[in-house]
């Protein structure tokens, strides 16, 4: 920049500053004033965004805040936010907290550009313990909490996202769960079911962020409200609460909390009651309850035997398989897939022969979406195990032999993979992949020329992902140590050749 250009720029900034300071004090503006504001703010915005210094010129943030608070023009407000974002980034967090009018307007504004400015400002506090202490000890913190109930879901989400980070800071979590703030959240929860669910989600998310956060939330009773609303009058709320509580199954301490709070007993008792078939919400509540049990056994598989012994989950689900509508049966299929996708759960299914036989027999009579769900379930059950685990080999072979007696043979699975319905084809591929992950599956391959030819064939099915899934079968076979002793030399050569040409597929 030349000396003349620098002087001109400095003069423009000085003139713009004078315009802004003058109009910030004015009681009202006419159209010419608004044009002058737009021009002056634009000059400062450009100057602040450039990499050069502002030639010693200073624009007080109080001036821009005053203009922002007075203006109803979206264009002026957007420029004010852009300028303030740059100016405030150079101030300490303590100084920023002194702009209470700006923060108050930012939390309550219906303009996203103002909301974003304020939440960007307070986000800085998360990275500094001293700044975060200043925030949670200020009146501004209560405004952040109140934003959870904001009508604009974007603002509510920004507030929730910020507050969820507090679990990493014990002193901030203590401030959030103070009696006054708990009272504020209780009051907000009473305003609407939407706000209540936002607060439930916030508290659960924080409690699951660490063991210490979970312990503190539980000790303070912050989670007790969740356990008291299961199966109350509002079934829609119950569905959401059950889904939130399902996330607790992800950790042992979450499971212990659910046990101690009586939630698990409540959810088991719910399985003893048939849903109102004419009430979609009642059926969805039952579906959510069933899925809870599947995820509990999946996540806490080390306690699977103790849980099944105490509650007989599969026995409680048996009547639903025989009487329920398709949506509840589908929920059971998903739950069984989760239940039996680990060795402990598969062992329980194997021991509960009546329930397992019912699930397997359903492959013969079901079509469409139900058949698709069943194939996915079978693939999860057959995909369990390790090569050296004789018990798992025995259980998975038993399951597949049962499937064969009901018409789901390797031949039928091969035919399904060549179909035009992609989801059904992929599910059939997944079942075959489960079969081939076992030594007995490799033996079936060795004794079936049709199966062997299918595996090495390049005449694939009609679906787009057929090539990828077909190569997955080949890799599963080649990765299995039993293929060395179980498969003949010719088929091994063909498999190796197919694998070598994988990049051509």
UniProtKB/TrEMBL annotation:
GO terms for cellular component: cytosol. GO terms for biological process: proteasome assembly. InterPro entries: ARM-like, ARM-type_fold, PSMD5. Gene3D superfamilies: Leucine-rich Repeat Variant. This is 26S proteasome non-ATPase regulatory subunit 5.
């Amino acid at each position: 920049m030349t000396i003349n250009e620098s002087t001109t720029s400095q003069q423009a900034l000085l003139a713009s500053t004078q315009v802004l300071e003058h109009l910030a004090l004015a009681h009202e503006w006419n159209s010419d004033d608004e044009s002058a504001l737009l021009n002056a703010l634009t000059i400062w915005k450009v100057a602040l965004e450039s990499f050069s210094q502002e030639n010693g010129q200073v624009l007080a943030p109080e001036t821009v805040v005053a203009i922002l608070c007075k203006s109803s023009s979206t264009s002026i407000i957007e420029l004010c936010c852009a300028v303030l974002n740059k100016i405030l980034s150079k101030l300490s967090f303590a100084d920023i907290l002194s702009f209470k009018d700006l923060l108050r307007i930012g939390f309550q504004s219906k303009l996203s550009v103002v909301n974003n400015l304020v939440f960007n400002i307070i986000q800085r506090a998360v990275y500094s313990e001293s700044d975060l202490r200043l925030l949670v000890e200020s009146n501004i913190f209560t405004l952040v909490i109140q934003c959870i109930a904001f009508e604009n879901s974007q603002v509510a989400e920004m507030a929730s996202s910020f507050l969820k980070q507090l679990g990493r800071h014990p002193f901030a979590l203590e401030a959030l769960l103070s009696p006054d703030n708990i009272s504020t959240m209780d009051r907000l929860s009473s305003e609407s079911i939407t706000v209540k669910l936002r607060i439930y989600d916030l508290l659960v998310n924080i409690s699951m962020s660490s063991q210490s956060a979970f312990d503190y939330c539980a000790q303070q009773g912050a989670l007790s409200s969740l356990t008291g609303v299961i199966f109350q009058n509002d079934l829609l709320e119950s569905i959401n609460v059950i889904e939130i509580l399902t996330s607790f199954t992800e950790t042992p301490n979450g499971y212990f909390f659910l046990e101690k709070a009586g939630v698990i007993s409540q959810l088991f008792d719910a399985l003893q009651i048939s849903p109102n078939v004419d009430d979609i919400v009642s059926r969805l509540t039952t579906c959510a309850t069933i899925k809870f049990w599947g995820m509990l056994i999946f996540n806490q598989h080390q306690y699977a035997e103790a849980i099944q012994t105490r509650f007989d989950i599969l026995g409680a689900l048996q009547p639903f398989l025989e009487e329920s509508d398709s949506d509840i049966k589908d929920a059971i299929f998903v739950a069984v897939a989760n239940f039996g996708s680990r060795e402990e759960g598969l062992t329980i299914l194997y021991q509960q022969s009546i329930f397992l036989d019912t699930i397997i027999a359903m492959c013969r009579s079901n079509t469409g979406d139900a058949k698709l769900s069943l194939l996915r379930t079978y693939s999860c059950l057959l995909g369990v195990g390790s090569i050296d685990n004789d018990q798992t080999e025995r259980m998975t072979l038993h399951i597949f032999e049962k499937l064969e007696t009901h018409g789901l043979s390797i031949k039928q699975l091969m035919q399904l993979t060549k179909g035009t319905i992609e989801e059904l084809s992929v599910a059939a591929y997944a079942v075959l992949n489960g079969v081939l992950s076992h030594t007995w599956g490799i033996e079936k391959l060795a004794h079936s020329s049709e199966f062997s030819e299918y595996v090495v064939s390049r005449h694939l099915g009609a679906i787009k992902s057929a090539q990828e899934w077909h190569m997955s079968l080949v890799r599963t076979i080649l990765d299995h140590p039993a293929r060395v002793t179980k498969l003949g030399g010719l088929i091994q050569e063909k498999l190796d050749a197919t694998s070598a040409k994988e990049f051509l597929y």
